[in-house]
Design a protein that fits this description.
- The chain is mainly β.
- The protein has one domain: Alpha-D-Glucose-1,6-Bisphosphate, Chain A, domain 4 (2-Layer Sandwich).
- A 6-stranded antiparallel beta sheet has the order 1-6-5-4-3-2, with helices on one face.
- A hairpin with a 3-residue loop joins strand 3 and strand 4.
- It is globular.
- The N and C termini lie close together (about 10 Å).
- The model has no long low-confidence stretch (mean pLDDT about 90).
Length: about 110
């Protein structure tokens, strides 16, 4: 793996609600970009947004790992962004709050 970008955020919502926001296509479309995500390993989906020179507005993705209420990982490629894995790891910080660790890392070109 190459360099990684990491972000930790705490939400004032139960972890189940945070999970729903990440895995529900309507919620994810509202938060990030329109998409057809389904939390099923091997599911291929796309994020779609405005195009610009060098980028057609489509990010192709595939679900790599799903552990309900704990972890969602997928690869994505679009424009100059290639061979990248995005991982959301969820942890409970009490009954009413959820922590979400987000990591985006470039993977080895010789590996999927």
């Amino acid at each position: 793996m190459g360099k990684a970008i990491k972000l930790t955020t705490t939400y004032n919502h139960p972890i189940e609600d945070v999970w729903e926001a990440l895995t529900n296509k309507d919620a994810m479309s509202e938060w990030l970009m329109p998409c057809n995500i389904e939390p099923i390993v091997g599911h291929q989906f796309q994020f779609k947004t405005k195009s610009y020179p060098g980028f057609n507005g489509i990010v192709n993705c595939e679900i790599l790992e799903v552990i309900k209420h704990q972890k969602l990982s997928f690869n994505w490629s679009g424009g100059s962004l290639k061979n990248t894995i995005v991982t959301f790891e969820l942890k409970t910080n009490g009954t009413k709050t959820g922590q979400c660790d987000i990591k985006e890392e470039k993977c080895d070109k010789n590996k999927k």
